[in-house]
Amino acid sequence: VVALARDPKKAESLGVTARTFDYSKPDTLEAGLAQVGILLLISSSEVGQRVAQHSSVINAAKKAGVKRIVYTSLLRADTSPLDLAPEHKATEAALKESGLAYTILRNGWYTENYLTAVGAALQYGAIIGSAGEGRVSSASREDFADAAVAVLLKPEGHENGILELAGDSSYTLAELAAELAKQSGKPVAYNNLPEADYVTALKGFGLPEAFAAILAQSDVSASKGALYSEDRTLSKLIGHPTTPLSKSVEQAIKAL
User: Fold this and answer.
1) Are 202 and 40 in contact (CB under 8 A)?
2) Dist CA 246 CA 230 (whole Å)
């Protein structure tokens, strides 16, 4: 097992060999993939640069002799209305055209995407968003990580396959606020905002305008069902139910 990171020192605690690997430096990627047979390609955090960066990794993998790539994509990436979807769709196409074996993990929403705001929600008594009554079938990062491990260790049946992954249960943001209020003992309401107002609020919290717009558009898409799924492939794959919202909220409160 080899850990690939922009800063290998940050991966030392994993107890495995760590190599420098920076998606934005294509000339350095092939060396990092030496003697790697299977690559877990985690989507870049640099929205807008993902297609170029992912393509560089795929090309380097071919040159280095990698046999198979497992890629973390987005739920229903081929049809999703989220602004995040096109880059994932393009990466999936690049994988299919590469000639390498692949497995695409179309990850749904991470519950942690909402729980980063728990501290502020408890302080101000509100969660804000633009998701309306849309239901979100999220799962924890740990659940999605377990899925990646399962596919990496047992590729049988997943060769050149696409897996739609989502949480077993769903919730509205109003229900998230209610759960937070229940566990904290503090009043927490959900305030639904027009998309433009939500962007303005996120910018006020210090988020770059482009990223704020993506988050707001994702919420609006959620209001139309983009983050809802009744698929239970994730829990079947990892061999246990996905992490319930109540447990994730509990963990988030304890971490404050």
Assistant:
1) no
2) 19
pTM of the model: 0.95
Q: Give the separation between CA 23 and CA 53, rounded to whole angstroms.
A: 5
* pLDDT value at residue 15: 94
Please provide residue 32's backbone torsions phi and psi, each rounded to the nearest 5 degrees.
-65, -20
d(CA 213, CA 196): 8
The reported pLDDT for the residue numbered 245 is 98
pLDDT value at position 241? Answer: 98
Q: Which helix (H) or strand (E) holds 4?
A: strand 2-5
Q: CA torsion, points 170, 140, 69, 71, in degrees to nearest 10?
A: 50
What pLDDT does residue 82 have? 98
Residue 3, CA distances (Å) to 19, 21, 243 in order: 6, 9, 26
